[in-house]
């Protein structure tokens, strides 16, 4: 899919008296977290798309690249937001000029997509709201809108009236989605709500980590929206929902702060993978790293795992239960470890070592000896480290490496 670029700066920061978009907000446009395959926002998006596709193959058309700059008409009027509704105020919404806004919800695309006549569609995109900033609020976030249109034969076959039928179908579809994301045993409840564009309206809550969490808004589409936009709309009935992808991702992946989505930090990004709904975020340090490089000629017995163990005290993953790779290269029982030197048992740097990476390796053409250069990243979870303590640690690492690993430091 073509990636929608940020619009030209002059089209957003217009200098119009009504313009209240800041450079900061403009700088977020075109980032498109929902289009980066391994980004948690995109992982959730794809899981929901897959769910609807598996449930009703081919029915839902997906739209990922619709532009976030929309008319105030489509953002508000076409979804029946009253003229005096707070969301229209420039205190809540970013205006490009008096008639143009940064969409504050994906519902801004309901009417235009209904006019295309698809019986089902899912729209994902970045939405913008002026709001306080805290761990769960950010002025840009991502929503997905879903719409499904029914024909009379569908509710007739079910022996229900159009509204009852649409409501039943809506709740079944969204409960199924919640089970797909959060597991078959997730507890759901429906709470009555109000939206200008649906009637009746509901919020779905899930019981997660001991409390009820709102995950989406939805309802049976107001008939006038269908009448005005869908081909032959007055004979049809529809449901619609809108959900916040950050909220879902924070709950599902245990992500504690909404800013992490935007950090671009590899330590965040590499924890998530397309298709993996089981990932749980592990926090990393906010304190600065300190890098130390170390080069040596390797011996035939040298392995990177032995080095890591010496440096950090890392153990073989899982399979060495009851035993630890204590002394370098030797598997020892827990009971024997008490006799070992602390450095070897615990690793010299312990948890202060964040990462050990091979940054360079070459083999001397004449002697055929191989030299490796490793970079050790030191970083504390709790505090800034001092030069003195890192230098002292690094000296001990160098001693340990030449003594225990029998390599020749350069
Ligand atoms: N647009 C609503 C919001 O942003 C969510 C919603 C979408 C509710 C569709 C009902 C139907 O809060």
From TrEMBL:
Organism: Monoraphidium neglectum
UniProt key word Transit peptide: yes
Listed EC numbers: 6.1.1.20
Low complexity composition-biased segments: 1-11
Keywords (A to Z) from UniProt: Aminoacyl-tRNA synthetase, ATP-binding, Ligase, Mitochondrion, Nucleotide-binding, Protein biosynthesis, Transit peptide
Protein name, as recorded: phenylalanine--tRNA ligase
Family: Belongs to the class-II aminoacyl-tRNA synthetase family.
Reaction equations catalysed: tRNA(Phe) + L-phenylalanine + ATP = L-phenylalanyl-tRNA(Phe) + AMP + diphosphate + H(+)
Chain residue ranges for the region called Disordered: 1-17
Ranges of residues in domain FDX-ACB: 285-410
Main location: mitochondrion
Gene Ontology biological-process annotations: phenylalanyl-tRNA aminoacylation
GO CC field: mitochondrial matrix
Annotated localization: Mitochondrion matrix
Domain spans labelled Aminoacyl-transfer RNA synthetases class-II family profile: 125-289
The protein's enzyme class: ligase
Gene Ontology MF terms: ATP binding; phenylalanine-tRNA ligase activity; tRNA binding
